[in-house]
Every structure is written in structure tokens, then in C-alpha cells.
Amino acid sequence: MYQIIHRNGLAKRARLITVHGVIETPVFMNVGTAAAIKGAVATTDLKDIRTQVQLSNTYHLHVRPGDEVVKKLGGLHRFMNWDRPILTDSGGFQVFSLGELRKIKEEGVYFRSHVDGRKIFMGPEESMQIQSNLGSTIAMAFDECPSSVASREYVQNSVDRTTRWLKRCRTEMARLNTVEDTINPHQLLFGINQGAIFPDIRIDHAKAISELELDGYAVGGLAVGESHAEMYHILDEVVPHLPSEKPTYLMGVGTPANILEAVSRGVDFFDCVYPSRNGRHGHVYTNRGKLNMLNAKYELDDAPIEEGCGCPACTHYSRAYIRHLLKAKEMLGMRLCVLHNLYFYNTMMEEIRQAIEEERYQEYKAAKLQGFQENDKKQ
């Protein structure tokens, strides 16, 4: 059940009640592709930094260790020791990212495994079965993510097929939720809007999938090569045509600035690999912009990454020590930077929720964006 608590302009403060707990939105979902956050971060750490939702990848878990293995071990929650909500993407993004290894047909997509080259077929029914085996809280519909530079004809044909696939996903999910040995008979299904950077195709698709009365709606196929301005324009055009009384999820986005802009356009679910990926390379987020902890200027800096931050890195360690760990290629340095970044994102989402409730979101957003630019100007 999705409840809107407050609106401040188009920004919405809401709550999604699931079988695995309550999700307060706007929310950032921490990305654990293979059922783990890269950077030696455990699910116990995720609770310590106030993570609400963990996201895992259907395709990757199907390839390794295998969704049947996960099901035999009690499902993804039990497998990774996480009792809060999990969203699994459908494998559809791999239709885009594994372009050299796949062939798209009406029935589904034929892959070559990126691990061992074996043949894999995944269509709407297979994606739903895999996600049912995983037992995630929220399953994403199987779709194709067309390139931002694909032709109009290709994108239209792709979107039409994605709509047909979505209807098959909905039918199969309804069936799987009634199977006797299903792990999560209350699994939710989110549909995905596609259409590259063609506003009219996007709008028509949003209208079509809205009629299917799904549990939530995502905007996919952005942050894949188009400019930020193009992404914001698509959101301006499309989000008003998705049901505002349902969760609105912008897939794979993004930077703190991207999130702030999208919240003001009515989006309330986000995920992105940036905080963990950047952290593994020593790049950390602060309220005054991004810092590169490998810089020589931090060699004798005994301050935390950011004053006042309550993350495990800032609470206990200095910039100088974290820089030393990174230079020495000690895993602890990477781990501390990832924990800091995830904590930063989770804390920012808490601030966003409070600002919406207090009807000062635009002021909060402006101040936050200005702060991000301060360090950039000093570089």
C-alpha cells in the first residue's frame, strides 16, 4: 500500500508498506548487484547507515549462483541476511548493456553469459520466474532499454514490444504469486516507461502502461548517454502522465544533483552505482562537493572526510589515514569510502523527506546544489 503523506509542489513525501517493511520516500536504494554492496559492505553495515532498500540484479543472480540455488536456500532475504525490502531489476538493462552478447526476439532475449559464454534465454515469463525464485519485495517488469541514439523507428518498435512484454509479466506474476511454494506471494510488480529521448513516444507509453494498474512505475532508459538537460526534459514531459498515487522510480540515477532535480519533478525512488563505485576509487561526496581522497593535500589532514558526518569513516578516522589506506591498497580504505558515500546518500534522502514535509523543498534544493558547487570552484 502506497500512501502520500505530503506534497510540496510536485515533490511528494510518501510511504510504501510492503511485506518486508515500510519504505519511506523519497528513497535511495543501495545497489548490491550480486546480493552484496561492492566494497566489502555487509548487510549489517547497511542497517547501521540506515539503508531502507537493497537492490539486486536478476540477470547476474541467475548466472551466478543461480536463482534456483537461492530459492533452495530460502530466498534472497535469507541468503544475504537482510530482512528489509529488496527490489530486483528484471534483467532488461542487460539487453542494453550486453549488446555484443544478445539477440532480441518477440519471445524474449537470447544472451551469452558474460561469465562463461553459455547460452541463456530470458523473456517476460523467465524474468518473473527468476524474481519469484529470489523472493524479492518488488520485481521489475522485463523490458528493452533502447539506446539514446537509436532511430525513432527502432525506439517505437522497441517500446511497443516492451508493452506487450509488460502484459505478459503481469499475467505471469499473478500466476506465480498463487503457486504453493512461492517464497513471496505478495511480490509487487513495477512497470517501466521507455522511449529514449522522444517525448511523444514516452508520453504515449506512459499512458498505455498506466492503464494496467501496476504497483509502481519506473522511468527507464535515462542516464545512458543523454545530457542532464535532456533527462530533466523527459521527466518534465513524462512524469505527469504516470499515476502520481503510485511510486515513481527513476532507474539508475544518479548523482546527488540528479536526485534533487528529479524529486522536484515528482520522482520518489532512485538507485545508482555511483556512491559505491566512486567510493572504491577514493572519491567521496560531501555537502561541499566531491573530494578525491588520493590527493596529496590530504596527506597530513587529520580532519574527517566531512565535519559533523556520523558515518563510520568520519566518526573514527581522518582524511590522512583514509588516504594512506587507499595508497597502500588496503581494502579498509575502499570500504570506509563506500560506507561514507552510502551514508551521505541515505542522510540526504532523510533531509529531503523532512524538507518536503516542512514545505521548504525548493529552498533546501537550492542551498544543497549551491553547496555542491563550492568545492568544485576551488579545484
Automatic annotation (TrEMBL):
Its EC number is 2.4.2.29. It holds the Pfam family TGT. Zn(2+) binds at C309, C311, C314, H340. The active site is at D89 (proton acceptor), D271 (nucleophile). The keyword Metal-binding applies. Residues 11-370 form the tRNA-guanine(15) transglycosylase-like domain. It catalyses: 7-aminomethyl-7-carbaguanine + guanosine(34) in tRNA = 7-aminomethyl-7-carbaguanosine(34) in tRNA + guanine. Substrate binds at D89, S90, G91, G92, F93, D143, Q194, G221. Pathway: tRNA modification; tRNA-queuosine biosynthesis. SUPFAM superfamilies: tRNA-guanine transglycosylase (SSF51713). Keywords: Glycosyltransferase, Metal-binding, Queuosine biosynthesis, Transferase, tRNA processing, Zinc. It is an enzyme of class 2 (transferase). Binds 1 zinc ion per subunit. Residues 252-258 are annotated as: RNA binding. Its cofactor is Zn(2+). One of its GO terms (molecular function) is glycosyltransferase activity. PANTHER family: QUEUINE TRNA-RIBOSYLTRANSFERASE (PTHR46499:SF1). Belongs to the queuine tRNA-ribosyltransferase family. Homodimer. Within each dimer, one monomer is responsible for RNA recognition and catalysis, while the other monomer binds to the replacement base PreQ1. Catalyzes the base-exchange of a guanine (G) residue with the queuine precursor 7-aminomethyl-7-deazaguanine (PreQ1) at position 34 (anticodon wobble position) in tRNAs with GU(N) anticodons (tRNA-Asp, -Asn, -His and -Tyr). Catalysis occurs through a double-displacement mechanism. The nucleophile active site attacks the C1' of nucleotide 34 to detach the guanine base from the RNA, forming a covalent enzyme-RNA intermediate. The proton acceptor active site deprotonates the incoming PreQ1, allowing a nucleophilic attack on the C1' of the ribose to form the product. This is Queuine tRNA-ribosyltransferase.
